[in-house]
Amino acid sequence: MSQTALIYPSNAAPFEIGTRPIPSPEDDQLLVKVISAALNPSDSLAQRGLLSLLKIFPAVLGTDIAGIVEKTGTKSNGFSVGDKVFFQGYLFDPDQTGFQQYTVVPSDIVSHIPSNLSFDQAASIPLAFVTAFVGLFHSTGMQIAPPFSGPTVTAEDSTILIIGGSSIVGFFTIQLARMAGFKRILTTVAPKHNDTIKALGATHVFDRAAADLEDQIRAVTGNELVYVYDAISSEDTQNFGWKLLSDTKPGTLVVVHLAAQTDASPKKPKESKWLTVYGSSHWYRDISVPIYKAIGKWLEEGIVVPPKTTVIGGLAAVPEGVQRLKEGKVSGEKLIAHPWE
Prior knowledge:
By secondary structure, this protein is α/β, with parallel strands linked by helices. Helix content is 26%, strand content 24%. Strand 14, helix 9 (318-326) and strand 15 form a beta-alpha-beta unit. Helix 3 (126-137) packs across helix 4. Keywords: Membrane, Transmembrane, Transmembrane helix.
């Protein structure tokens, strides 16, 4: 049996609509009919040949997926045929990605879609949410205790700066910082996003283009800031975040692309860290398995809310959407493709 897929034939080559076999689930996997697949900046990086770990071609991209369980493996637990589910695809195995009509996924890193969410909303969540979670709570990130049982940050002056609050990673990082108990959640955005970002839990929202942005932030943090999450992670934003960290206390800057630190970067306490994090459900089972057990309830109760979504069409619309991401023309929303259209 074959299916329609958006094929990425070789490194930096144009996408092609084609066919490939429908994968069969292994014992611990689910076969899922893909209803909605979200686009991510990582798709743009991969299509430009900038993901060095992507070595299997022809590839299929797409790492945010929502759909319906078609078949269960003999050792998979907790799911039945017909269940509505969402999960993160695995970019390095074309059988486990989203820009096709069927995909497989390990059953331990899948969540049921709560009744108050659509397929499109569910597909907007996995990669960005896991990336935010890893950066804040995993051993490869800030190592804050995760809020599975409630707030874990108790200091009355607890402060975090999130650069790029209207990016989807920033959108979820704000919510998770609120859940963790941070008292002051600072973020930078374009002013048109202010109301949305404040509703998520940001306590201080700054115009990212303000000429005196550093002074505005320092008026709140002084020289005490020890947590910065850069959800944009350009060279400029990384250096800006590092500069704002305390000069006297060990701090952590988390970035989501390759670290831009150089010998010319400002000197900080030697215990300070400049960390690149990867939002992989597949690599970090120690944290992703409990995430997928908890996130359905958080979404159902409105503790976590999904971002705005925009449907761009079927698989044929993905290349144009990826180009929009490459050009920085997407802000405050998630682009969604429907592989059956």
